[in-house]
Specification:
heterodimer; A: 120 residues; mainly alpha; 4 helices; B: 187 residues; 10 helices
Chain lengths: 120, 187
Amino acid sequence: MSDDSVDQILFQEEEILPSSGFAARVMDAVYRQASTPSPIPFPWKRAFPGLATAALTLLSVLLGFADLVWAASSVRHSATGAPVLVLAFHSKLMAQAGWVVLVSFVTLGAVKLSMRLTVA
Amino acid sequence: MTASEDQADVEKVLTGDIAAFEGIVRRWQSPLINLAYRFCRDRGRSEEMAQEAFLRAYTALGQWRREGAFSTWLFALAANIYCSELRRIPLKMVNLEEAADLMDLHNINRSLEDEDRKRAVRNAVAALPAKYREALTLFYFHDMNVTAAAESLGLPEGTVKARLYRGREMLRSKLLRVFPTQRLREA
């Protein structure tokens, strides 16, 4: 089959006519759409404190974990036979507890603030 | 179908006269339905796709930049919707080789009818990968105008030309696999 005959077949497609009520159906859908209230945009400004707090919390957790792994790698021998990571974890536990408590309070504060702003 | 009518209706719609959109629908319903039909080969589905295109056009009317023709913007928007729709729910295709076998069984002593050839070519186009099928469909819809096809697809002309070339090559090889050479020559 030559290119010309393929061109001819694809060029001379049958034309279809819209059904009689097509324009009316489209306009009905347009009116419905126009009467639907536009979606409420996400409140980025209000969510920002919460998001920033969450990001900071995540960052501090990651840094804490990295610090833990670093400490574990520096412990060469374990007298009790416990895994070095567990030992390092215990040694760092008290130091990290303060941070965990602080982060918990900051998170709680952020949640309370968000809820108050949402109600307002 | 004039650009000034489109522009006037768009301005009215943008100032809150929703009824003015009906003028746009009436002027462009046939081209949009026919374009959709070339993509999906189903009358009912083509009207649904065209309706979706009009709805999107209504909501995005403010994004039409006046330096380009309204029709160019509308076709680009519609083509984008149709391509997405076809990728979401692909065509139910008859395997080209199977279709040819069926034709051979039924028409064993008859030469290929025009309709059979047309159907085979359309099946071959439908079986092409999406990017080639879309380029070919829009090229023939726009009276074999590469520039218009490129504008509708939102692609550079060079890319569309390359896709058309590759699409035609694939089409030719598919059709050669299905039809014996003698028959093709007769055609």
